[in-house]
């Protein structure tokens, strides 16, 4: 223990194993005095994946998001004949609102034009060739900010497609 903080080991914060030690009461997430800098970010392999997905992939996160929303259907994207293709589309009432590319590294989302313009001012996001209401999101790492944006855009896109 140094400066009132638990020592940090190679796998994260370490400290007392009981509920009340030198650092005081703890909850399921560890000592109550931990700072955001004590957490390790997600890496490209997904080993520290904040999404809770076992594989940490864009496809895994999108699949979970789709399954959690009533009325959302997923299907292989047109032209995705190869078994190794990750190309998938998500729709509501046969209106596609999200499309993952064959490599599984980029997703296009149908928002509305004003939201899409604002979204393109965020990291890893560009206009999509699909039209003014679409954005292309290609995060190199699924860290917390990327996951937060994708969750929000996916929910918005699904609601918008259902209108």
Describe the structure.
Helix content is 22%, strand content 24%. It is an alpha+beta fold and 163 residues long. It has a domain at 58-162: Alpha-Beta Complex (Aspartate Aminotransferase, domain 1), CATH 3.90.1150. Strands 6-7-8-9-11-10 form a six-stranded antiparallel sheet, covered by helices on one side.
Question: How do you describe this structure in short?
Answer:
With 163 residues, the protein is an alpha+beta fold.
How much beta, percentage-wise? Answer: 15-25%
Order of helices and strands: EEEEEHEEEEHEEH
Distance between the termini: 55 Å
Specify Rg, calculated over alpha carbons. 20 Å
SS field, number of helical segments: 3
Structural class: alpha+beta
- Helix fraction? 10-25%
- Under CATH, the topology of the domain at 58-162 can be stated as Aspartate Aminotransferase, domain 1
Quaternary assembly = single chain
Largest sheet: 6 strands, antiparallel
* Inertia-based shape: globular
Output the keywords:
163 residues, alpha+beta, Aspartate Aminotransferase, domain 1, six-stranded antiparallel β-sheet, three-stranded antiparallel β-sheet
